[in-house]
Automatic annotation (TrEMBL):
It holds the Pfam family adh_short. SUPFAM superfamilies: NAD(P)-binding Rossmann-fold domains. Belongs to the short-chain dehydrogenases/reductases (SDR) family. Its EC number is 1.1.1.30. InterPro entries: 3-OHbutyrate_DH, NAD(P)-bd_dom_sf, Sc_DH/Rdtase_CS, SDR, SDR_fam. The lineage of its organism: Bacteria, Pseudomonadati, Pseudomonadota, Alphaproteobacteria, Rhodospirillales. PANTHER family: 3-OXOACYL-(ACYL-CARRIER-PROTEIN) REDUCTASE, 3-OXOACYL-[ACYL-CARRIER-PROTEIN] REDUCTASE FABG. This is 3-hydroxybutyrate dehydrogenase. Keywords: Oxidoreductase. One of its GO terms (molecular function) is 3-hydroxybutyrate dehydrogenase activity. The keyword Transcription does not apply. NCBIfam families: PHB_DH, PRK12429.1. Transmembrane segments: none annotated. PROSITE patterns: ADH_SHORT (PS00061).
Length: 260
């Protein structure tokens, strides 16, 4: 379905981004991976993805807190594939602390990677999409883009900002074949969430399993994790022609988190 299209997925060496990159590649899209990790493992990942799905897979290690590197990443993808049709702004980090104790540098880092990088990626990829009159910008926000939790001030502020930015870009592209939407996942079992499970287990003297169950029970009525593959299939749908009039939406896939 996406043969001939090319995508950038930021933060795709792990977790949700990798799940989305796999699903886009499975539909025939060429993919540029981004994110941190062991260079050898990333090279092997690119090779195996390319072989499995018969697509071109490139890698750019741009740090999403550095606008010049984001600009160079978009140029790199345009050079590798000739164009960028799909931009998935996914890279993100978390920091948990009460607002009065929140380290200033953690605030700056969360805002720059989780929010400003979405602006910069969009800023640099959109002109090419508009020139070709086709594009999909998919921002990975969070249930925390729509509701808050205590002790996550920077993350909640950044993700609400992503939802607002998504709506603005959707309005600015409304007369074109470029769409911009946000996906708002609930809990997904990735390294980002495992750290929070570890902290809960340590604080309460729980096993890893019990901490995972309690984390889910507090927020996610399904009491099961959303998976990167499920989110990847949603990204595929948003990339399809069927989704051409979804614009500025913030779609929650959250096991019922926002239903109560
Ligand atoms: P993860 O920690 O598994 O993966 C994060 C990815 O981002 C990795 O590839 C990492 O290398 C990359 N990354 C981190 N900092 C970077 C930087 N400065 N520059 C470039 N790449 C960087 O996390 P995840 O859970 O897969 O999260 C992915 C996105 O989904 C994030 O935006 C996160 O906020 C969002 N999200 C996650 C959950 C969840 O429950 N896991 C829920 C809602 C939203």
């Amino acid at each position: 379905m996406l043969k001939g299209k090319s995508a950038i997925v930021t933060g795709s060496t792990s977790g949700i981004g990798l799940g989305i990159a796999r699903c886009l590649a499975a539909q025939g899209a060429d993919v540029l991976l981004n994110g941190f990790g062991d260079r050898g493992e990333i090279a092997a990942l690119c090779e195996s993805l390319g072989r499995e799905f018969g697509v071109r897979v490139a890698y750019d290690g741009a740090d999403m807190s550095k606008p010049a590197e984001i600009k160079a990443m978009v140029a790199n993808a345009e050079q590798a594939f000739g164009k960028v049709d799909i931009l998935v702004n996914n890279a993100g980090i978390q920091h948990v602390a009460p607002v009065e104790d929140f380290p200033e540098d953690a605030w700056e880092r969360v805002i720059s990677i989780n929010l400003s990088a979405v602006f910069y990626g969009t800023r640099y990829a959109l002109p090419g999409m508009k020139a070709r009159n086709w594009g999909r910008i998919i921002n990975i926000a969070s249930a925390h883009g729509l509701v808050a939790s205590a002790n996550k001030s920077a993350y909640v502020a950044a993700k609400h900002g992503v939802v607002g930015l998504t709506k603005t870009v959707a309005l600015e592209t409304a007369l074109t074949n470029v769409t911009c939407n946000a996906i708002c996942p609930g809990w997904v079992l990735t390294p980002l969430v495992q750290k929070q499970i570890d902290a809960l287990a340590e604080k309460n003297g729980w096993s890893n399993e019990q901490a995972g169950r309690e984390l889910l029970r507090e927020k996610q009525p399904s009491e099961t994790f959303v998976t990167p593959e499920q989110l990847g299939e949603l990204a595929v749908f948003l990339s399809s022609e069927a989704a051409s009039n979804m614009r500025g939406a913030a779609i929650n896939m959250d096991g019922g988190w926002l239903a109560r």
